[in-house]
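Protocol step 4 of 6.
Sequence for VWA domain-containing protein (Streptomonospora algeriensis) entered exactly as in the expression construct, tag removed. Do not edit the line below.
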Amino acid sequence: DVQQRREQVRSRGRLDGTLEEARALLDRALGQERAELFPDPSDDARMREAELDSLPEDTSAAVRRLSDYRWRSRAAAQSFEELRDLLRREVLDTRFQGMKEALANSTPEDMQRVREMVDALNGMLEADDRGEHTQADFDRFMDAYGDMFPEEPKPRNLEELVDSLARRAAAAQRMMDSLTPEQRSELQGLMEEANAESGMNEALDRLSGALRARRPDLGWSGGERMEGDQGLGMGDATTALQELADLAELDTALNQRYAGAGLDDVDEEAVRRALGRRAVDDLERLRAVERELREQGYVEGSRNRLRLTPKAVRRLGETALRDVFADPSNTPRPGGHADDDAGHIVEATGSTRPWAFGDEEPLDVVRTLQNAIARGGAGSGVPVRMRPEDFEVAESERRDAAAVCLLVDLSYSMALRDLWGTAKQTAMALHSLVTTRFPQDAVQVIGFSDYARELPPNGLAEVSWEPVQGTNLQHALLLAGRHLDRHADFEPIVLVVTDGEPTAHLERDGSAAFAWPPSPETTAATLAEVDRMTRRGANLNVFLLADDPRLEQFVDEVAHRNGGRVVRPDADRLGGYVVRDFLSRRRRAG
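Step 5 output, structure tokens:
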């Protein structure tokens, strides 16, 4: 999961690890030098101590001042050289991943070879700008210096090498932008000192300019939020920000929210870098599934406008219902009534309507034959052939028709508690049950977070939780009440699925007011809608998905005022609880 991976990368640690380590090494060197000077009574020792005492607090300025200092302590000189070596390797690691490890215990000859590699790389880029570069030039470069680019797979040409180096250079700049101004200034000074000491300042500046000119489309500025207790070195911090950039790019491609998007746009190499080889295999399987769904008629549309067909929605609802009733003893029979009188017809209304699957009303034979004759053409001599669309049924007054409202919490906490998938399955299962077994019923599914909204049947499979603050049960009950009022002669059935007490309500101007802990205004507005439901004769059965004393106190008050029930189901059995509760109330209504 891309979002989960991004949070893992962000939690690796702080970005100031190199600065922290440099300060520690400098303090160690100064302490060792002072310990060497303290027993010496000479004026030279006192002058040296005064020089150390006058060093600036800024680490980079102190290192610059000490570059020509003649250390009396051999241990201090070694600590200071360790500091300079750390900076050289970290600076190079921000440009060339893996260089920090490659240059551990390096010799002057190793550093000379790095300088030669950077010069050769700049020369190759300049030759390419003049149109003189060839693949053979690149191959010779990799033969000589390929061990300095340990990533796999290795770049196959100059373009791939530039892409890799430019992405890292951009990440290094974003790493610097993520620091505080004070940290950035101090670390920049240390980097400049390290580059000057290694003799590569000018060469690295040329390389940075060339990479930026070739890939200006990359994010060369902007900070990132990093968390964790461990301080990351500059190279590791750059790697983390490079991964975050890859994940952000991959997230955009996978979300398919841009014009003309499609799974073919997803870069397999970006998937491999961010999520590993197995994720590339998953992507290919996903592409195969998309092709199969198209061929089977379950999705339609083009590229980023893919949508589920009615066939797919019906299939998903049936699957959700089957999963909910995996135990055959829980499976409702068609109609689901408490007795064998399937229709409970009181009297005909005199009107007819098109027949729908599951209808129990009697056929209107005259209207059905008229439809078939009109379609076939009267007097044509052709035998009348009837089709399903010709059938009409006689409408009747029914005592057992129900107006069903399912109110589902869409708030962020449902996702945090891993409850949203179960809630969606429950909504789809209930909708499928009502529409296929009780077609005379009127069902409405309402989702609520900071605001509430009706969830269309064809959109249930695609709806998701909403990353906003607020649990606006008041608005959800308001919408449910309107549905009940439109079907005043139907038996009201209202079911609420939630994991949190109400924290939002509608103001007079229609805006949502959020407060945590819940304000008295939110509680009063919500209970006012509960009281309206009670006056309609609608009992509220609340399915509680969290152990929260405040929430339990609130729903107990709802049950006391309304007469409904509070159910505390296991989350993985929510669907069974809701559907069985509906069937129980449905049978009583019949």
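Step 6, annotate. Residues 257-261, 316-321, 327-347 have pLDDT under 50 and may be disordered.
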